Amino acid sequence: MTQDIQVPNTDSQTTGNHGSNDIRQRFFVEDSPVRGDVVRLSRSYASTIAQKPYPEAIKRLLGEMLTAASLLISTVKINGRLSIQLQSSDSDSLLNWAMAECDQDGIIRALASWKGETDEQVQAWDNMIHAKEAFAELGAMGQGVLFINIQPDGGEHTKVSLSVATTI
Question: Between the chain's N and C termini, which has fewer beta carbons within 10 Å?
Fold first, then answer.
């Protein structure tokens, strides 16, 4: 197996301590059509979820979204940024929106907005631990929207960005 390694966001990487670093690694198997990318976002993910007291299910959803954004930007091979956004139009949804963004250098960020003002809402979040449970909070079929935005460097955002939106 041959590997092409890209290491984003690793200003203090050491050989003996890979657990605290981020890695985006492209791989392929020689003489085979098998190829892909492996992503580990240990430090960036920990930093992201430490910024707010996110419920566990939202932490996991943001982790999945960060991983997806990192894998997608390496696939489209642009100099710029790629963001993934989820948004609910259901007024009863506990999850308002979530977004993850990654640039070609592997700099990532993620944010989410959720309802947690009442004891009932807090208890509902306390009972959720999986990303799919947070995702389900976007509401009934057709009330959630997924946006994927690609913004190349050096272009005007409004003229060169590509957005794909679908109801989920």
Answer: N
